[in-house]
Design a protein that fits this description.
92 residues; alpha+beta; Alpha-Beta Plaits; four-stranded antiparallel beta sheet; 3 helices; globular
């Protein structure tokens, strides 16, 4: 089994949610194209300020490469400060 991340992205305002909606399609596209990405789902919930996040990467190196790319991306800049409640499994 690879590395998994599951949890919630929780916006505090409609402004934050609008930033997520605007940046999310490109973030998903880039992540799914990464080597080692097996699954990457960010889905709206019944609450318009909350998304479920479910990721799976082949191994710790692929997960760490994703984290590094994402940290330097437009996604990171646009969603800075938005609460994340994630659980990560499979990392040493």
């Amino acid at each position: 089994m690879g590395v998994t991340l599951d949890g919630l992205l929780r916006c505090a305002s409609e402004d934050e949610a609008a930033r997520v909606r605007a940046a999310l399609p490109e973030h998903i596209r880039l992540t799914k194209a990464e080597p080692g990405c097996m699954r990457f789902d960010v889905l709206a919930t019944d609450d318009p300020l909350v998304w479920t996040v479910s990721e799976e990467f082949t191994d710790p190196a692929a997960f760490e490469a994703h984290q590094a790319r994402a940290a330097a991306s437009d996604w990171a800049r646009e969603t800075a400060g938005i609460a994340r409640d994630y659980k990560i499994k499979g990392m040493p």
